[in-house]
Design brief:
Layout (H helix, E strand, L loop, with lengths): L6 E7 L3 H6 L3 E9 L2 E9 L1
Antiparallel strand pairs: 1-3, 2-3
Length: 46
C-alpha cells in the first residue's frame, strides 16, 4: 500500500515507540500530549 512513499510520518504513543523503531521509524521533535497521552512524532525514510 505504501511501497512508493519515500517518507512516512506518524504520531505514536510513547508506550509503543519501541515497536515502530524496530520497523525503521525514528523519533523527531519533542514529546507532546494528545488526549492526555504522551506521544512523539516518528518518521520513516527510504
Amino acid at each position: 500500500y505504501l511501497k512508493n512513499e519515500k517518507m512516512i510520518y506518524l504520531n505514536a504513543q510513547k508506550s509503543v515507540i519501541g515497536f515502530y523503531e524496530k520497523l525503521g521509524f525514528g523519533p523527531i521533535g519533542d514529546q507532546f500530549y494528545e488526549a492526555s497521552i504522551p506521544h512523539k512524532k516518528l518518521i520513516y525514510k527510504k
